[in-house]
Write a structure and sequence with these properties.
Layout: H1 2-17, H2 30-107, H3 139-153, H4 157-178, E1 186-187, E2 191-193, H5 195-198, E3 208-215, E4 220-226, E5 240-247, H6 273-277, H7 282-287, H8 297-315, E6 321-325, E7 333-338, E8 343-353, E9 360-362, E10 380-383, H9 385-398, H10 405-423, H11 430-443, H12 454-471, H13 492-495, H14 504-508, H15 510-536, E11 550-551
Membrane topology: Single-pass type I membrane protein
Signal peptide: 1-15
Subcellular location: Cell membrane; Nucleus outer membrane
Length: 552
């Protein structure tokens, strides 16, 4: 009983102790809150991971930017170092180029007995031999050829010159009688130039080239402007100039009204600058380009041909032959036609003297040496024909008696003429042959031009031409040539100018260059046969009047 009572009491006490109202349990809700806490912790952990990823990306980006900046700085430093090295290398190259150019200018005219050719990718190999190993006739055949063919062909040169000069004197006198001294051009006496007056003409028919200088009436005068004297001039215009028509009393400080003499800082209110440069008048209207104070070559050509026609009509009754223009595009290209059918050509070329020198401006030459057309009709070609004639005369006095320099030029001109008839004209002309000879005359001793050295000097002349062709470079003998003798009396502006390359057209026209080189070697190949044949038989020249001739 007591045990049962004890058990009941124990149950009651246990129930009371475990009753929630008497002793509430704080951890009774842990199972419910734990899941929410876990979810929050997971969400927080995810935020922390995202933040960690963002921070890692930011750190990586900053590291990349830092690396890029370091790379740019390193490259900039390398570029500065390389630029400094390149500037130094460029300076050294420029100095080396100037040294080479100075050396080349000093040695460009030296004779080359071996005639080495330049490297030309479009030409066949020379195999180390000058003139491609081609040989001319031997000394005996060459001397016989010259005595029988060349010397005999030039025997009539003196009579031809005498006849043409007499007729031209009469023609120009008739022209002057038709001119008005107050308004027309003043025509001066003619000047004989080129091969007929330098004693090396060989081609038939014999052709006289005569310069006819003319001057404007008062109060005008011509003011020459040389392109080669300018600091910067295009390569194609080095051999040209312009001629300005101005009044004799016109200067930079005065005015065309001639009523005041103005100072440098004063301006005439009645006449503008254009009126000062171009006063206007019959001379400008007749010979100048439109709206320009410069002489126009086409206008001068028209005036000269008209004047010659009028002069011939005045004296035609005195002669038993006709006079005709040979080439319509060449002023003064004339032909005398005899009743027998023969004719005699000659060239009257209107020219303008450059200041007080022997340099002349020509509209263009019948055999223009430059090979390039002028850029404008106001560009006049510079002619050194009078200087060339003086130089040859002066040089001949210093050479041994019977020197072979003109004989070399005659034979080379003969071969070129025959080759041109076979294959047509090329870019090589007699003017180039003469220029090559002038260079050799300066570089060779007088004793080297004895008559017995004809074959050696002819071979050297052809070698010089070959070398010049392969290099596409043949400098004008006077323009920019500081080795030209001072006794010639060249204008200082011409001597100090940049050298003029007569073979510049070959650089610009490859087809012309190829044709010229082929024609040159073909001429050398045919030379022995031509010399042999003409030594045995001299064919007679039966020349007739070309069909296109305009009768005056």
């Amino acid at each position: 009983m007591a045990l049962g009572l004890f058990r009941v009491c124990l149950v009651v006490v246990t129930a009371i102790i475990n009753h929630p109202l008497l002793f509430p349990r704080e951890n009774a809700t842990v199972p419910e809150n734990e899941e929410e806490i876990i979810r929050k912790m997971q969400a927080h952990q995810e935020k922390l991971q995202l933040e960690q990823l963002r921070l890692e990306e930011e750190v990586a980006r900053m590291a990349a930017e830092k690396e890029a900046l370091e790379r740019v700085a390193e490259e900039g430093q390398q570029q500065n170092e390389s630029r400094t090295a390149w500037d130094l290398w460029s300076t050294l190259c420029m100095i080396l180029f100037l040294v080479i150019e100075v050396w080349r200018q000093d040695h460009q005219d030296a004779p080359s007995p071996e005639c080495p050719g330049g490297d030309e990718d479009e030409l066949p190999s020379l195999e180390g031999a000058p003139l491609r190993g081609l040989s001319l006739a031997n000394k005996g055949t060459l001397d016989h050829f010259y005595e029988r063919c060349i010397r005999g062909a030039t025997a009539d040169a003196a009579r031809t010159r005498e006849f043409v000069e007499g007729f031209v004197d009469d023609l120009l006198e008739a022209l002057r009688s038709l001119c008005n001294r107050d308004t027309d051009m003043e025509v001066e006496d003619f000047i004989g130039v080129d091969s007929m007056y330098e004693n090396w003409q060989v081609d038939r028919p014999l052709l006289c080239d005569l310069f006819v200088p003319f001057m404007p009436p008062e109060p005008y005068h011509f003011h020459a402007e040389l392109c080669c004297s300018r600091r910067s001039v295009p390569l194609g215009r080095q051999g040209y100039g312009q001629i300005k028509v101005v009044r004799a009393n016109e200067d930079s400080l005065g005015c065309i009204c001639d009523k005041t003499k103005l100072g440098e800082d004063m301006l005439c209110l009645l006449h503008g600058k254009n009126r000062l440069e171009r006063p206007g008048g019959e001379v400008e209207t007749l010979l100048c380009a439109r709206d320009s104070p410069y002489l126009d070559t086409l206008q001068v050509m028209k005036w000269f041909q008209t004047a010659l026609t009028r002069a011939w009509h005045r004296i035609a009754h005195k002669y038993e032959f006709d006079l005709a223009f040979g080439q319509l595009d060449t002023p003064g290209s004339l032909k005398i036609r005899f009743r027998s059918g023969k004719f005699m050509p000659f060239n009257l070329i209107p020219v303008i003297q450059c200041d007080d020198s022997d340099l002349y401006f020509v509209s263009h030459l019948p055999r223009e040496p430059s090979g390039e057309a002028p850029a404008s009709s106001t560009d006049w070609l510079l002619s050194f024909a009078v200087y060339e004639r003086h130089f040859l005369r002066m040089t001949s006095k210093a050479l041994p008696e019977g020197a072979c320099h003109l004989s070399c030029l005659q034979i080379a001109s003969f071969l070129l003429s025959k080759q041109s008839r076979l294959t047509g004209p090329s870019g090589l002309s007699n003017y180039h042959l003469k220029t090559a000879l002038l260079h050799l005359l300066v570089s060779r001793r007088p004793a080297d031009w004895e008559a017995g050295q004809l074959d050696a000097r002819l071979h050297e002349l052809l070698c010089f031409l070959e070398k010049s062709l392969l290099e596409k470079k043949l400098h004008h003998f006077f323009i920019g040539n500081r080795k030209a003798p001072n006794a010639v009396g060249l204008p200082e502006a011409v001597r100090r100018a940049e050298p003029l390359n007569l073979f510049r057209p070959f650089v610009l026209q490859r087809s012309l260059y190829r044709k010229t080189v082929d024609s040159f070697y073909e001429m050398l190949k045919n030379a022995p046969v031509l010399i042999s044949e003409y030594s045995l038989h001299i064919p007679s020249d039966h020349t007739g009047l070309p069909p296109k001739a305009v009768v005056l």
